[in-house]
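Whiteboard transcription, Tuesday session. T.W. wrote the C-alpha cells on the left side:
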C-alpha cells in the first residue's frame, strides 16, 4: 500500500470515514428493499396492489434492518456535520483517527448486531459510537469557544 492510499490529514480521514458510512447506509437501505421484494412484504397498500396481493404482517428481519437504518440516520448524519467541522479546527491526526475510526467501526458493528439481534453487543457498540460523537462534539466546542 502506498502512502497516497493512506489518509494523511484529519480531513482526508473524515472523507474516508464518510464514504464508508455512506456506503454502509446505502447497502442497508438496499438490503431492506431487496428483502421486501424477496419476501413480498411491502411498505404500502399500492405496492401490494401492484403485485395483486393483500397486505401482509410486517416481517421481523425487514423491520430490524429498517430500525437499524433509521438509527443510522439519527446518529451518522450528526457525525458527518460535527466531524467535518472538527477536522477543520486542526486537530492532531492521532486524536482524529481515534475518534473517527472508533465511530465508524462501532456504527458498522451496530448494524451487524442490530441485523442479527445480538444483545447486549448492539447497545455496547451503540454507546461506544455515542461517547465518541459526544467527545468529538465537546472537542469542537472547546476549539470554537
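and on the right, the sequence the group agreed on:
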Amino acid at each position: 500500500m502506498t502512502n497516497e492510499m493512506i489518509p494523511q490529514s484529519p480531513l482526508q480521514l473524515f472523507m474516508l470515514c464518510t464514504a464508508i458510512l455512506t456506503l454502509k447506509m446505502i447497502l442497508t437501505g438496499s438490503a431492506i428493499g431487496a428483502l421486501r421484494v424477496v419476501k413480498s412484504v411491502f411498505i404500502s397498500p399500492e405496492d401490494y396492489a401492484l403485485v395483486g396481493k393483500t397486505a401482509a404482517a410486517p416481517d421481523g428481519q425487514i423491520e430490524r434492518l429498517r430500525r437499524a437504518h433509521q438509527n443510522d440516520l439519527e446518529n451518522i448524519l450528526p457525525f458527518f456535520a460535527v466531524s467535518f467541522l472538527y477536522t477543520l479546527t486542526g486537530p492532531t491526526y492521532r486524536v482524529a483517527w481515534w475518534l473517527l475510526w472508533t465511530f465508524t467501526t462501532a456504527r458498522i458493528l451496530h448494524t451487524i448486531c442490530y441485523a442479527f439481534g445480538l444483545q447486549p453487543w448492539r447497545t455496547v457498540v451503540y454507546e461506544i459510537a455515542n461517547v465518541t460523537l459526544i467527545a468529538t462534539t465537546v472537542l469542537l466546542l472547546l476549539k470554537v469557544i
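Someone added at the bottom: Residues 10-39 form the longest helix (30 residues).
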